[in-house]
Amino acid sequence: MANEGPGMKVATLRSDAPTKLEPVASRKAAEPMIEIDHVSQRFQTSGRQSHLALSDINLAIDEGAFVSILGPSGCGKSTLLYIVGGFVKPTEGSAKVKGKVITGPGPDRGPVFQEFALFPWKTVLGNVMYGMLQQGIRKSEADSRGRKLLEMVGLKGYEKFFPKELSGGMKQRVAIARTLAYDPVVLLMDEPFGALDAHTRTRLQNDLLDIWDTQRKTVLFVTHSVEEAVYLSDKVIVMSRSPGSIKEIVEIDLPRPRKRADLLLDARFQKYIVDIEKMIDDRAEDM
Questions:
Q1: pLDDT along the chain (287 residues), means of 10
Q2: Dihedral through CA 178, CA 180, CA 14, CA 236, nearest 10?
Q3: How far, in Å, CA of 230 to CA of 280, rounded?
Q4: How far apart are alpha carbons 192 and 167 in whole angstroms?
């Protein structure tokens, strides 16, 4: 198995200042990137019983925001993510991206899951190029873009490796590069680092923030780790236990760019973690 590659290298994002500003009165409020309107989800169990997984979810996520979803096991975190991804149709309500109702998966939303789901018979570069070739992009262009993405995620030199020759963290880097290859406006991440060791998880969290700082894609991130959610996010959605509903939306007011070493000494960071842990701990509700 190969060792972890070097950290991701991200180019500086160019900032073009507008030459003319509209009068404040004429500006329209920015439309949310993601809108979830009164969404409920029921499933039929194997015993043909109805199970309410999500109950009346209402949520608006701004363009470029990094939002994490936390909650007890079985509260419907992943189900909500799959609804936004178009993999699950809500029983009630609707979900929209850029004002359009989601009717199925689309290239505007890029999923990154805990299972890497790489093609074992394709090389690292072949996996990254696959989606682009399916979209009709010329092979030469897909090759060039794939190599640049692999350099971005710290895997330059691993283009000809096969997934079985990579560590878990490297496989997840390939999965992220493959998703970024077709340039989705939204990243949907379901416990993407959950199966990794603590050191690799920390490195990939930092790498993800580098990508987000550069590209400012809208990120919806499901995790069980309160510390991970606070470290990464602008907002943390705390969900109740099943049937899942929104218990609290916590605004994370911490400076960016974020450095873990600095935040570990920041009392605000620690307080966010303690407060959110208390929200998730619902043992008092059973008493």
A1: 49 37 50 95 80 93 96 90 95 95 93 84 95 90 94 92 93 92 92 87 90 92 95 96 92 92 93 94 54
A2: -130
A3: 14
A4: 14
pLDDT value for 1 = 56
Say what the pTM is.
Answer: 0.84
Burial of residue 104 (CB within 10 Å: 0-12, 13-18, 19+) is: exposed
Buried/exposed 126-165: b ≥16 CB within 10 Å, e otherwise: bbbbbbbbeeebeeeebbebbbebbbbbbbeebbebbbee
**Residue position matching structure tokens 């406006």:** 185
- pLDDT in the model for residue 31: 86
Per the listing, tokens 């496989």 go with 171
**Cβ(132)–Cβ(142) below 8 Å:** yes
